[in-house]
């Protein structure tokens, strides 16, 4: 990958360095508009009124001074508007004048951590194939904010977005492995890889079956870091492109399939947060990296595959391949009995139908873990929604001819039955959660440009102290 560097330095996604003069960015709500205008010098107040500034969400008014722009007003609307806007500050970033800015007059119902995170995330640009001008305004880190943590979160999100945004022509299983090696080198982690026919020799038959038809051979990437603390294993779906296999997707459904390795991209972003902040955790990251391609040796509908766990799986749809490669990786992870196992995958369209692109579901039988994740998701502007491992649906994934069915007929409860399928491969690990993410922002929003996006990683990171206690 000589033309692009993952984890490249991005000054626009970091705080301004200490020292030097900064301008004030006043956050003005509908309730505080009159008082803020009264507090301004008369000339600036008159200018703001003449511009029609009314404190609506995202409204920006640059205030003049003797040497150009002296300060600015950013509208954050009323309480209802603020509840709908995840990153209120991000709207202003590309519009502000060059230089350092400091926040002032923050409404009490706006979280300072989320405000600053939104600013940093607004600096992201994907520049592998086309250049664009970065924002020139930089934020002074306010007191009480963990600068190192926020910058690690922003850098992790940039890594995740870069990986997802890169098309399969440059993000094959080979390239995904190379990206993991770059991350490992950054943090002095260890990486081992089992690839090609060695997958069969070392008992990963379903990873091999799904990926054997591709030009870039299937592989299981295994990253380890840390030698003290509780054990955390992250498993991420690394389907670098999904044609659907012999159950070929229609063209409209194939267009976004470069993002089918979004689970892998997200766990790598989460791993970066953990390693960058020096968390006392024994971390393991497992990524089954494949391309679900079409060739004479593609696995077929009706095939029965043997898994690492020993369970047999009837293939009723080759387009339900993600759960197959994850199953072998989860079985390996389960053999170590980590204190916590997290699985992340762009797994089902059913999850999008239920909750839309912005709200990923997660599954766990552990109520305290679920509560910690939900609370952390709210605090980190990284929303999640718990869904049930609904036991009455277990029969839907039992075809009779084999132990499990990879694609139950009927079309209902697709996200739940996929989660139940994965749970069958985690029998010895006490705490387990599965995330069915989308990994894509379908339309640009503040701090979230259209394209690849991380989901759930910040929430998991923030919940780890409680989840691993």
UniProtKB/TrEMBL annotation:
InterPro entries the record matches: Leucine_aapep/pepB, Macro_dom-like, Peptidase_M17_C, Peptidase_M17_N_1
The family database entries (Pfam families) matched by this protein are listed as: Peptidase_M17, Peptidase_M17_N_1
Q: Which CDD domains match?
A: Peptidase_M17
A GO BP entry: proteolysis
Domain of life, per lineage: Bacteria
- According to the entry, every stretch annotated as the Cytosol aminopeptidase domain falls at 317-324
UniProt keywords (A-Z) are: Aminopeptidase, Hydrolase, Manganese, Protease
GO cellular component terms, semicolon-separated = cytoplasm
Q: Offer an example of a GO molecular function term for this protein.
A: manganese ion binding
Q: Which PANTHER family match?
A: LEUCINE AMINOPEPTIDASE-RELATED (PTHR11963), PEPTIDASE B (PTHR11963:SF20)
User: What family does this chain come from, according to its entry?
Assistant: Belongs to the peptidase M17 family.
Protein name in UniProt: Cytochrome C oxidase subunit II
Tell me the classification of the organism that encodes this protein: Bacteria, Pseudomonadati, Pseudomonadota, Alphaproteobacteria, Rhodobacterales
């Amino acid at each position: 990958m000589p033309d692009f560097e993952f984890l490249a330095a991005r000054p626009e996604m970091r705080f301004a360095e200490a020292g030097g003069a900064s301008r004030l960015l006043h956050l003005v709500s509908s309730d505080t508009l009159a008082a803020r205008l009264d507090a301004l010098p008369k000339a600036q107040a008159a200018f703001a009124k003449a511009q029609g500034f009314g404190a609506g969400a995202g409204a920006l008014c640059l205030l003049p001074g003797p040497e150009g722009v002296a300060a600015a007003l950013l509208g954050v609307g009323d309480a209802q508007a603020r509840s709908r806007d995840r990153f209120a500050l991000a709207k202003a970033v590309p519009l502000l004048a060059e230089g350092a800015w400091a926040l002032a007059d923050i409404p009490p119902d706006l979280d300072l951590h989320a405000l600053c995170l939104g600013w940093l995330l607004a600096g992201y640009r994907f520049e592998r194939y086309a250049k664009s001008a970065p924002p020139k305004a930089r934020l002074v880190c306010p007191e009480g904010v963990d600068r190192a943590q926020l910058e690690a979160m922003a850098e992790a999100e940039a890594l995740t977005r870069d990986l997802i945004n890169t098309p399969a022509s440059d993000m094959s299983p080979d390239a995904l492995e190379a990206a993991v090696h770059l991350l490992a080198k950054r943090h002095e982690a260890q990486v081992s890889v089992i690839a090609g026919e060695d997958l069969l020799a070392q008992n990963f038959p379903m990873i091999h079956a799904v990926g054997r038809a591709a030009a870039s051979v299937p592989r299981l990437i295994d990253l380890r870091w840390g030698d003290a603390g509780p054990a955390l294993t992250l498993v991420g779906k690394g389907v670098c492109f999904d044609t659907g296999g012999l159950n070929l997707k229609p063209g409209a459904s194939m267009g976004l399939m470069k993002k089918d390795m979004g689970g892998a991209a997200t766990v790598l972003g989460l791993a970066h947060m953990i390693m960058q902040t020096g968390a006392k955790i024994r971390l393991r990251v497992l990524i089954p990296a494949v391309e679900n391609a079409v060739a004479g040796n593609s696995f077929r509908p009706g095939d029965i595959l043997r898994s690492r766990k020993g369970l047999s799986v009837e293939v009723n749809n080759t387009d339900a391949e993600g759960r197959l490669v994850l199953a072998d990786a989860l079985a390996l992870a389960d053999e170590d009995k980590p204190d916590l196992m997290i699985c992340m995958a762009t797994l089902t369209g059913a999850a999008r139908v239920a909750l839309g692109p912005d709200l990923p579901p997660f599954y766990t039988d552990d109520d305290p873990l679920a509560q910690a994740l939900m609370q952390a998701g709210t605090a980190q502007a990284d929303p999640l929604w718990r869904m049930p491992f609904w036991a009455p649906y277990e029969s839907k994934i039992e075809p009779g001819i084999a132990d499990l069915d990879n694609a139950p007929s009927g079309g209902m409860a697709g996200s739940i039955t996929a989660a139940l399928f994965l749970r069958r491969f985690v029998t010895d690990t006490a705490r387990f959660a599965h995330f069915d993410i989308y990994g894509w922002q379908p339309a640009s929003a503040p701090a979230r440009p259209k394209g690849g996006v991380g989901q759930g990683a910040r929430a998991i990171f923030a919940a780890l102290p409680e989840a691993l206690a």
